[in-house]
Backbone:
């Protein structure tokens, strides 16, 4: 019987390669909204980061997330992502 391949993704912040399920997906939806996608299935352009604030902050430095999502993030969008990350993973 064949073993199923585990999809791997790279964290934008720390550059660690991990299984897709261990990372969170940040997606730019077709209407231009940037949100955290806990299901990993929303349509749009996605990027991955570890579920901690340090990796998220690293993606903001040097505009790594901006480049990956092909959009210029506003300060409001960055603040919303920080709050969503805290709410989803540090309750």
Residues:
């Amino acid at each position: 019987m064949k073993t199923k391949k585990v999809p791997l993704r790279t964290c934008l912040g720390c550059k660690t390669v991990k299984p897709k399920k261990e990372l969170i997906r940040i997606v730019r939806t077709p209407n231009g909204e940037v949100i955290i996608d806990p299901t990993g299935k929303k349509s749009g352009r996605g990027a991955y980061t570890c579920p901690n604030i340090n990796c998220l902050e690293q993606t903001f430095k040097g505009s790594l997330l901006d480049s990956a999502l092909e959009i210029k993030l506003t300060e409001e969008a960055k603040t919303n992502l920080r709050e969503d990350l805290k709410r989803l993973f540090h309750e």
DSSP finds three helices and five strands in the chain. The helical segments are 53-60, 64-69, 75-89.
